[in-house]
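FW: tagging you since you asked about this chain on Friday. Here's the raw sequence from the shared folder, copied in full. Didn't touch anything.
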Amino acid sequence: MLQVLRQGSFVKKMHDLQWTQPGFFDLKNDEVGLEHSIARYHADDKVEEQTLVTAFDVTCRAWKVPLAVP
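HL: got it, structure written out here
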């Protein structure tokens, strides 16, 4: 759940900075800023694999009950 909230926050920041506008990163200097931001995002995204597996299992169980997913 925290990862989804984090992703949503990241996307909102990108939108607020107008990074999602067509042509925003057309200049080479602007592209460097984007690459730096992406690298930082992934560096901050260090999550133990078992944590992800456990979270995925919990999510699957939660969806199976109300939706009757096999």
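FW: The chain has a mean pLDDT of 76.
HL: agreed, and The two ends are 22 Å apart (CA to CA).
FW: great, closing this out.
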